[in-house]
Amino acid sequence: MTDDKSLAKIRQVLGRYWGFQDFLPQQKEAMLCAEESRDSIVVLPTGGGKSLCFQAPAVALAGMAIVVSPLISLMKDQVDSLRDCGVEAARLDSSQQPEDQQRVLSAIRNGGLKILYLAPERIVSEPFANLIRDVRISLIAVDEAHCVSMWGHDFRPEYRQLDILKKMFPNTGIHAYTATATEQVRNDIGRQLHLDNPESIVGSFDRPNLHFKIQRLTRRFEQIAEVLSRHRGESGIVYCIRRKDVDQMCSEMTARGFSVLPYHAGMENSERKNNQEAFAREEIDTIVATVAFGMGIDKSNVRYVVHAGMPKSLEHYQQESGRAGRDSLEAECCLFYSGRDYATWEFLLGDMESEPRKIAMRKLGHIWNYCTGVTCRHQAIVNYFGQQLQKENCAACDVCLGELDKMEDSLTVAQKILSCVIRLDQRFGAEYTTLVLVGSQKARIKKLGHDRLKTYGI
Ligand code: ADP
């Protein structure tokens, strides 16, 4: 089929099932790969319209498409919205009743499905392979494909089994989709899935409508409350590192009169679902959550995302902050960080010397440098993903807007601090070193003779 013919069919499907007249950036290229069974790796930012890149060709092509997805809730949302559009879609997962599973199995056998959602472990299972032996498979989409790579930010061992897909379906196009992948991760996805000379389609990582502000956390609740006050009556998300931080933050913000509810994996399913729905229906302004909140949440008018602690990687930050301003209107992303967050993540990653931990520690170092750095926040994010921002001043971050307090003669100050650290034989923490530098009269300093150091009181 020529490009024109393929496109005409897809355009027709887009209009008929979704009511869309045109493509979002990169969608056309991604859909053509799917339509023409050329393997592809597609990286589009959250809200970039990834799902349609495989859904529309799946409807246009003969046969049934298989979509591999990591979460039952994600599969459910996508299947529901496809059915609302009139597409014959279904999912097979362990949470279904036997009779529902049977219904889906007969639909597969009778050729009554255009799109089937599955968990990675099911698609590679023998019973499933037997079931679809005589079914025509139009394409295979691997959603959240960064989960395949150990270099990604959410490696899932069950995704590794997908390496046999190419052997199982040698004549079917396999397409990987993710919102967040560095070049290294993209290459790894291609390798792990044994993709055949895959087309790499990468959208812009920049979100110019997001205004980034990063500050050291000094007065935890006051700083967060200041942001919420700027956005009363608007939707927003506050991310905390741990569940107990979520609970504490919620009670503090409620006590200050803000309309907030919590969301984390330690809550009852029903309560979590109610809170998520209250947020989606705008009965509350702010959801306070761990990173358990977000995947598959399609709320376009989130006006602010606050990180009350440092995320564990720039990939996470890009994804979580990216939930703000999907409607392309201005939105604010405030990140508050402290050295304690670094230590918390280091602790949570455990102390084994495994490869995944080493990779995670490197990512932690990158986000720390991002927080403490003074490079344009937009530029730093896109650079991390291997792109360049084509402007000197983004006019949408604390660095470019000159909001950072710069220190006079910072080089000399840094030299004094390092010199003191060396003279203390690198054996003392930041607090003690500071006391020596400011010439404290504390008994311990005198007892250890540190009041006689050259850097005492400088
Ligand atoms: P992603 O999975 O990349 O986060 P989605 O597939 O959820 O993005 O799409 C984001 C939003 O954009 C959805 O509301 C979707 O309906 C809309 N969308 C996708 N493609 C188009 C298009 N071609 N024209 C208009 N809206 C689109």
Provide structural commentary:
By secondary structure, this protein is an alpha/beta fold. The chain has 20 helices and 13 strands. The strands form two sheets. A seven-stranded parallel sheet has the order 3-4-2-5-6-1-7, with helices on both faces. Helix 1 packs across helix 2 and helix 2 runs parallel beside helix 3. It is elongated. The model has no long low-confidence stretch (mean pLDDT 93). Bound molecules: adenosine-5'-diphosphate (ADP).
Task: From the structure above, extract its key features.
alpha/beta, elongated, seven-stranded parallel sheet, binds adenosine-5'-diphosphate, six-stranded parallel sheet
In this entry the ligands are: adenosine-5'-diphosphate
Give the strand line-up of the largest sheet.
Answer: 3-4-2-5-6-1-7
Mean pLDDT score: 93
Structural class: alpha/beta
Radius of gyration using CA atoms only:
25 Å
Most strands sheet: 7 strands, parallel
Q: What is the strand tally?
A: 13
- Number of discrete helical segments: 20
- First and last CA, distance: 76 Å
Estimate the helix proportion, in percent. Answer: 40-55%
What is the overall silhouette? Answer: elongated
Tell me the strand percentage band: 5-15%
Low-confidence sequence ranges: none
